[in-house]
């Protein structure tokens, strides 16, 4: 069984259950019996037409972040074997994760450590890797040797933001975070030193109680603007933008040689990075903040929750 849609738009109501053949893995692929899948904003933005008219090819089975058990391997697969618990980040133009079985390339699949649940693992690929790569872009080290900087993380209660706050604290940073009023306590509980309600005057001004400016700002919201970030930055200072809009893209070019600059980080699949995140979860140093778990039969509810923009952490579909 799989969930698919057959055209742009329609939201959760357009998702339909279908019976399809179990995929046959190619020589470099593994067949995964999916145990959990994580819905990301990119999934429903593609449905809305973000990449129209190029992607997707209809009918389309969405979702890229999955965890499960290997039940078959291709002839050229070298490191993985039947019975391995794994997590995979499927290529976004093919996706296929919202199904009972999916074929995934060995190159985008890593083993899941003992003690890490499928739901926790499935939350990591897009959101966890994006957060990690944003923090590595500002030179963060996670071995206790980092002196730490004064940083701001926007939309810290979202999937990327919840990982970013925890990783920033592992890097010894002093973290100010922004989120909605209902999530202030949740973000404090994952390690933020100070949390601002983004609707208050302090939140709008990005102003912490110490009055100090930020060495770095990690922006995870498409509503964040360079014009708002620039006054809050130290000189030198840098915004790392992972949810870029047109004006921030322009700012990334115009500020390239400036002391205050904005740079865009685009998440990429790195197997070593994903292994690193999984080990942190295994060691109890990082957790997947799960907003809600939905059975496969109610995948539309999970889709709708993610589309609402009010999820705290990750929305998970459990098979």
TrEMBL record:
Residues 10-317 form the Enoyl reductase (ER) domain. This is Enoyl reductase (ER) domain-containing protein. Coiled coil: none annotated. Signal peptide: none annotated. GO terms for molecular function: oxidoreductase activity. It comes from the Eukaryota. It comes from Aegilops tauschii subsp. strangulata. InterPro entries: ADH-like_N, Chloroplast_QOR, ER, GroES-like_sf, NAD(P)-bd_dom_sf.
């Amino acid at each position: 069984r799989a969930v698919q849609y057959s055209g742009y738009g329609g939201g959760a109501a357009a998702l339909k259950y279908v019976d399809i053949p179990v995929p046959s893995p190619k020589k470099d692929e593994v067949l995964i019996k999916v145990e959990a899948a994580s819905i990301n904003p990119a999934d429903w933005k593609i449905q809305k037409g973000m990449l129209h008219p190029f992607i997707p090819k209809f009918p389309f089975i969405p979702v890229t972040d999955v965890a499960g058990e290997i039940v078959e391997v291709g002839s050229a697969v070298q490191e993985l074997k039947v019975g391995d618990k794994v997590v995979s980040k499927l290529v976004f133009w093919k996706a296929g994760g919202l199904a009972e079985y999916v074929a995934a390339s060995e190159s985008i699949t890593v083993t899941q450590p003992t003690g890490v649940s499928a739901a926790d693992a499935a939350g990591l690929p897009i959101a966890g890797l994006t957060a990690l790569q944003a923090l590595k872009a500002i030179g963060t080290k996670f071995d206790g040797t980092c002196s730490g900087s004064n940083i701001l993380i926007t939309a810290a209660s979202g999937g990327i933001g919840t990982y970013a706050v925890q990783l920033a604290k592992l890097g010894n940073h002093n973290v100010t975070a922004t989120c909605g009023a209902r999530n202030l306590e949740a973000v404090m509980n994952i390690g933020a030193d100070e949390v601002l309600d983004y609707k208050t005057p302090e939140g709008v001004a990005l102003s912490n109680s110490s009055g100090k400016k930020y060495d770095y700002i990690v922006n995870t919201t498409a509503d964040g603007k360079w014009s708002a970030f620039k006054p809050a930055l130290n000189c030198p200072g840098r915004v790392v933008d992972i949810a870029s809009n047109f004006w921030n893209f322009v700012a990334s070019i115009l500020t390239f040689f400036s002391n205050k600059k904005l740079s865009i980080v685009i998440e990429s699949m790195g197997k070593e990075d994903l292994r690193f995140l999984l080990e942190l979860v295994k060691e109890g140093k990082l957790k997947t903040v799960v907003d809600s778990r939905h059975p496969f039969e109610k995948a539309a509810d999970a889709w709708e929750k993610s589309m609402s923009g009010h999820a705290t952490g990750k929305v998970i579909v459990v098979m």
